Amino acid sequence: MTTLAIIGAGKGLGAAVARRFGKEGFAVALISRHQGRLDALAAELEQDGVQAKGFTADVRDPDSIAAALEKATETLGPIEVLQYSPLPQKDFMRPVLETTPADLRGPVEFSIYGPVAAVHQVVPGMRFLPEGAKPSILFVNGGSAVKPGRNVTGTSIAFAGQKAYVDLLHEVLGEEDIYVGQLIIGGAIVAGDAEKDPDVLADRIWKLHEERDTLRDQVSED
Predict the structure, then answer these.
(1) 124-160, pLDDT tens digit by residue?
(2) Residue 52's beta-bridge partner residues?
(3) β-pair type (136-142, 79-84)
(4) What is the spatial distance between Cα 100 and Cα 21, in angstroms, rounded to a whole number?
(5) What separation in angstroms does the CA of 170 have from each of 11, 63, 102, 129, 175?
């Protein structure tokens, strides 16, 4: 069995993706800052027949990301799919003329340093997965990744940097048959919505991993 690691796992999209991949036989490593919440989510997923376990990490601390991913591999098995989808902090989103250099430190750590640490941790193992595996690195971002917003400056700048990193990874790792893709979600995730319900979005993420024929999929421009 191989593993899906979700950095930024929560009860909405993270849980939906865990169930979608779990249905396909993946074990799921749930990674976020709060062990209690992770344990509760893992218990819910286990009731749905998904093998899941939580591992704590702070995405602004590269060493903690590396340690969590290493422990996940040791506990659940080699990581075949990495999803990077933590929810940005509200204080990252300030109007452009109110944003200082200090205000950009957190968004950059969150959206650039974190992904780089995660990728460096999982890629060596992806190179040695068994035949038939489909190693994938998947990013989930809001609409400011492709269309900056004047009142969400931190995420607009940091997401733009992450988008550039995704482009570069897609080109370089594609040469090794490691797929890199990105889902852009405009506006809020809405339960019951035809496009932005968590289960609908989870299906789109599965499709990115399975079909491997597009760099970026965008849902809504809101």
Answers:
(1) 999 999 999 999 999 999 998 999 999 999 999 999 9
(2) 28
(3) parallel
(4) 40
(5) 28, 24, 31, 19, 9
3, 73 in Cβ contact below 8 A?
Answer: yes
Please, what is the Cα angle at 200 between 220 and 109, to 5 degrees? 65
DSSP-derived 3-state class of residue 33: coil
H/E run at residue 62: helix 62-76
Please tell me whether residue 159 adopts helix, strand or coil conformation: helix
* Torsion angles phi and psi, residue 62, rounded to 5: -55, -35
pLDDT in tens, 54-80: 999 999 999 999 999 999 999 999 999
pTM for this structure? Answer: 0.95
d(CA 177, CA 136): 9
